[in-house]
Amino acid sequence: MMVIRAFNMQDFEEARFDEANQDLTSVSLFINRLMVIIMPLMMLIMNGLAVAIIWVGAHQVAESSMQVGDMMAFIQYAMQIVMSFLMLTMLFIFLPRASVSADRVADVLETAPKIRDPENPMTFSGPTRGLIEFRDVSFRYPGALSDVLHDITFTAQPGQTTAFIGSTGCGKSTLVNLIPRFYDVSEGAVCVDGRDVRQVSQHDLRDRIGYIPQTGTLFSGTIESNLRYADEDASAETLREAADIAQASEFIFAKPEGLEAEISQGGTNVSGGQKQRLSIARALVKQPPIYIFDDSFSALDFRTDRALREALKEKTGQSTVLIVTQRVPTIKNADQIIVLERGRIVGKGTHQQLMASCETYREIALSQLSLEELA
Fold it and tell me: Considering the chain, what percentage of its residues have pLDDT values greater than 90?
């Protein structure tokens, strides 16, 4: 509603709603007018038939050629036949509705997922280190005419932070979404600990990944139930530690309910920054060897952003951390920064190395910070 009012589109939306409403009204009127005719007609026939049977039957009973019980049985049989015809007319109304509903359900049930587990999935040998390798990866969306990622090759080491930066639409989020197999590569391979992610089961793969999406999503329930979504058996200490690291404890325990505070569907009763911090805390509860932050700090102020990153560095010291962001200060101290432009890697290295060798990164950095801040 706020967007509609902001663009003064009330009249347009009212007309659009009115058009759909008029269609529904015309169909409903036709059905109800039909029922107005059919129902009285069928009741007239049913009651007229009963009167006729009683009239004729009464004369037969009076002449001792029929018993009263036979007449009553005849009335019952006649009523059952008439009611069957009445139900048949109702069927012609409900059948089209059921058919449309069945078609919608069938469309969902018949949709085959494109991402499937192999028939004989491999397993990760030993404990997961979190080594991620992209080997000449190219990707295009189904039905697209061209690739959105071209020849992507890099390695993300355990215990290090690998960051991705670039202009809007350059493929940063698409790239990290290939790791948990939200999409499958068109060419090349994405490997975790030497295993192609297409060779292991999706459950086994995603069990090793803590994913924080670009838009944080919370479910109806409590803060605790949302945090336990990552691990149902997590202890109270783990929940508290995750909230502390995500800089969420301040607003969680400012309320008397604490972790029992209610969250509405979609997290509409918390701010964007609080929603992001709760999403981060949820991933931290899982304690996986791989963390993927898909522009998960965009709604945070710089002070909270810095405090969160410092706490994350201590908590995720042995994990592989991947960060997608538009903010240079967020990734300035990353062990490896990958610069993307139009789906290609145009720069790779540390902040200082890229400032000296990558024009695209230097332009992004100078647009956000001064030379003194970048030093």
Answer: 23
According to DSSP, residue 269 is labeled: T
Q: What is the reported pLDDT for 370?
A: 73
Question: What proportion of the chain, given as a percentage, has pLDDT over 70?
Answer: 99
Q: b vs e for 312-348, b when ≥16 Cβ sit within 10 Å of the residue's Cβ? A: beebbeebbbbbbbbbbbbbbebebbbbbbebebbbb
- Residue 179 predicted with pLDDT over 90: yes
Q: Are 162 and 336 in contact (CB under 8 A)?
A: yes
What is the rounded distance in angstroms from the CA atom of residue 225 to the CA atom of residue 222? Answer: 5
Mean of all residue pLDDT scores within the chain: 87
Domains and CATH numbers, the chain: 2-109 (no CATH), 132-374 (3.40.50.300)
Instruction: Determine contact, residues 275/267, Cβ cutoff 8 Å.
Output: yes
Helices assigned H by DSSP within the chain: 2-6, 10-62, 68-109, 172-177, 202-206, 223-227, 236-245, 249-252, 272-286, 302-315, 328-331, 351-357, 359-368, 371-374
Q: Is the distance from CB of 364 to CB of 357 less than 8 angstroms?
A: no
Whether 355 and 362 have beta carbons less than 8 Å apart is answered as yes
Terminal-to-terminal C-alpha distance of the chain: 46
56 token code pair? 């004729």
Q: Which of 157, 211, 149 is nearest to 179 (CA)?
A: 211
Confidence of residue 176 (pLDDT cuts 50, 70, 90): very high
Angle between helical axes of 302-315 and 272-286 (0-180°, round to 10): 0
- Pseudo-torsion of CA 261, 265, 269, 274, nearest 10°? 80
**What's the whole-model pTM score?**
0.77
Whole-number pLDDT of residue 154: 92
Segment 233-238 shows an average pLDDT of: 88
The token pair that represents 229 in the structure block: 């979504």
Side chain identity, residue 259:
L
